[in-house]
Amino acid sequence: MRHSLLRLAPLAASVALSGCISFGAKPPESLLTLNATAQPQPGRTQSSATARSIVVQTPAVPTALATARVPVQATAGTIAYVKDAQWSEPPNRLFARLLSDTLTAQADMVVLSPAQSVSDPSGNLAGELRTFGIDATAQQAVVVYDAALTRVNATAVEKRRFEARVPIAAIEAVSAGTALNQAANQVAAEVATWVGGR
């Protein structure tokens, strides 16, 4: 009997501890993503022989954006995060994909990967996603993108800042995702107009 109790003791301890230990944060009910309002046309073939090509680099981000969470500028010197709001992947990668779709659809450009551009002269769009979150004092979703463009066969780099602000009714996950998607599309459309202008 004593030996049986000794064998059961570790099992009982592990069951008791299982209620106290968590192996990861509880995931949110849904994840946020970005969707381009200007989408490439399905089935349409593009060729860099007849259209301009470009490489869209994933933008750099400050530390506050190097996370799947949605930052909130609470005051001039403090940052919090929207409760239960989480991106499906890093926001700079989502934004780069949205830029690629918008450039393809709106500017009629062939977006290449860095590897594909080795044998094809193309422009290069890089930059930094400076702000991608919520301004609590203004109740707005804010996207600020500092773009750096090198056009085809050019050595000079053109730089321009793009900014969009969209009002947000409440600082919560769904409203934040919707407003940031709208602001990101506004910035992407302005970038496409600039890049495709000549």
TrEMBL record:
Domain ABC-type transport auxiliary lipoprotein component per the UniProt entry, residue ranges: 34-192
Entry annotated with the keyword Calcium: no
Signal peptide feature range: 1-18
Pfam (any one): ABC_trans_aux
Designated name of the protein: Membrane integrity-associated transporter subunit PqiC
InterPro entries per the UniProt record, alphabetical: ABC_trans_aux
Organism lineage string: Bacteria, Pseudomonadati, Pseudomonadota, Alphaproteobacteria, Sphingomonadales
Keywords: Signal
Domain of life the protein comes from: Bacteria
